[in-house]
Design brief:
By secondary structure, the chain is an alpha/beta fold. The protein has a domain at 8-37 and 109-242: Lambda Exonuclease, Chain A, CATH 3.90.320.10. It has helices at residues 8-12, 19-27, 30-35, 42-55, 60-63, 73-86, 93-106, 110-114, 162-172, 174-189, 216-239, and strands at 64-66, 89-91, 121-122, 126-129, 136-139, 143-145, 150-157, 195-202, 209-212. It has a five-stranded mixed sheet with strand order 3-6-7-8-9. Helix 6 links the parallel strand 1 and strand 2. Helix 2 crosses helix 11 (216-239), helix 4 (42-55) runs parallel beside helix 7 (93-106) and helix 10 (174-189) packs across helix 11. It is globular and about 65 Å long. The protein starts with 7 loop residues before the first helix and ends in a 30-residue tail after the last helix.
Length: 269
């Protein structure tokens, strides 16, 4: 299937399973994926506005509304009504000022400039029917730069330091995202991918921006998890069963560093 110019809402309700769904199946349980409630949180609005600030700064004024200082009272309600009527993202004064600072900082990062330009594709969807499982997998990169064959993905983080970001990759399955997006985009959109950048911006004052890419080991692990999770999804669909945690009584051990007053013993000692 070629690329699809659908809205974010249409994408999330469309056919197929995405990276977030596959990661939820693998990292939690199929039950979480199938029946878990998806909630909208205010920090999602900040993240979406930051996407615009980094990738389409010229559209920031028309797509984002600067609201009052907090979310209390009639001032906030009136701002909500205005934003809804004009289809804009509503932010508090503080969050809006932070997004402006992110925009200014992003303009100084060379790798981000590689992802900008009139020919870039922003938030366009691609779909691919996996050859092995027959499952439709979808992806929606934040940005694709055809001149450089690069995908860019923006992350909102507490810290954009190397140490913090490397931990977040494993915690949130961003290495799986690299694998899914590269595979589905190259096959579904039929566009080459020669690089995948993560653009991390801090929710702090002043906001900092850093750019990362994964090494070969992380990419290989992400692809293995992607394939495993896709097979789990296929098996659940075929059986019509979406299991959660085990119903058996499970014996729990402490981690080695949690022992403070005693020394653990093991059967093979």
């Amino acid at each position: 299937m070629p690329i699809v110019h659908n809205t974010n809402e249409e994408y999330h309700s469309s056919e197929g399973v995405s990276k977030s769904g596959l990661w939820e199946i693998y990292d939690k349980t199929p039950y979480h994926f199938k029946f878990g409630k998806k909630e909208h949180k205010s920090h999602f609005d900040l993240g979406e506005a930051a996407h615009i600030a980094i990738l389409e700064p010229e559209k920031l004024e028309t797509l984002v509304t600067r609201g009052p200082a907090d979310r209390r009272g009639n001032k906030w309600k009136n701002a909500q009504d205005f934003a809804a009527a004009h289809s804009t993202i509503l932010l508090t004064e503080g969050d809006h000022d932070q997004v402006l600072a992110i925009r200014d900082k992003a303009a100084t990062v060379p790798q981000i400039r590689l992802l900008q330009g009139e020919d870039t594709m922003r938030e366009v969807s691609a779909y691919h029917t996996d050859e092995e499982t027959g499952v439709t997998v979808r992806c929606r990169p934040d940005i694709y730069a055809p001149r450089h064959k690069l995908i860019g993905d923006i992350k909102t983080v507490a810290s954009a330091s190397y140490e913090a970001f490397s931990k977040s990759v494993g915690k949130f399955g961003w290495h799986v995202q690299d694998a899914v997006y590269t595979d589905v985009w190259s096959k579904g959109a039929e566009l080459d991918v020669e690089g995948f950048f993560f653009i991390a911006f801090e929710k702090s004052e002043p906001p900092m921006v850093a750019v990362f890419e994964l090494d070969a080991n992380a990419v290989r692990e992400g692809h293995a998890i992607y394939r495993r999770a896709l097979q789990m999804y296929k098996d659940c669909e075929d059986r019509g069963e979406w299991p959660g945690y085990s119903g058996d009584v499970q014996t729990v051990s402490l981690k080695q560093w949690d022992y403070r007053e005693t020394t653990p013993t093991y059967q093979d000692e």
